[in-house]
Amino acid sequence: MLKFFTFTRTFKEDISFLDRNKFIAPLIIFIMKQMLIIISLFLFATLQANAQSDKVVGFWITEKKTSQVEIYKTPSGEYQGKLVWLDEPLDEAGRPKKDKENPSQSLRNRPLKGIVLLKDFSYDASSKEWTGGTIYDPESGKTYDAFMWLDGDNNLNIKGFVMGMRFMGRSTAWTRDRQLRQ
User: Fold this and answer.
1) Which of 5, 33, 40, 118 is the most buried (most CB within 10 A)?
2) How many CA atoms does the CB half-sphere of 36 hold within 13 Å?
3) Residue 50 has pLDDT above 70, yes or no
4) Do 143 and 31 meet the contact criterion of CB atoms below 8 Å apart?
5) What confidence tens digit (pLDDT) does each residue in 127-143 have?
6) SS3 sequence, 33-52?
7) What is the CA 132 to chain-centroid distance, rounded?
8) CA-to-CA distance for 76 and 143, rounded, in angstroms?
9) pLDDT surpasses 70 at 72
């Protein structure tokens, strides 16, 4: 009677095959070690790039020190920044400040606190920059293409520009803050 899926060779027989082929066994072991090294290096590089890209995540005080922005990573992997604290959150009438300079009439009544100032940034490991995003300036109501880079761990430089010309634009420098201000 025929038996399907039976194994007649044992582990010792498999090893004896390698013993008979003295040249093949070291070659197989060498190749397996090389593959293990390559896979380990690839995983290490991937983890390093991911750790570097997330260095921007956290709380940042703007250059004028009048507001705080929280930069976070979205589920889609992009980086955004939300205005979470204002030095003077109330207007002259004692009401929360509004986005009164927004070009869209329907958005001029939304509170400044909570708006997303930085949108759609992704990390470019080769240039060590966060690129492809935009920055909204609530003082002018304008949105600019932008890129960001770190100077050390605690200084974030952001440059907004127009018409795809990175060399033409305005820069700002933010400082890392340890926690949300009250």
Assistant:
1) 118
2) 6
3) no
4) no
5) 999 999 999 999 999 99
6) HHHHHHHHHHHHHHHHHHHH
7) 12
8) 22
9) yes
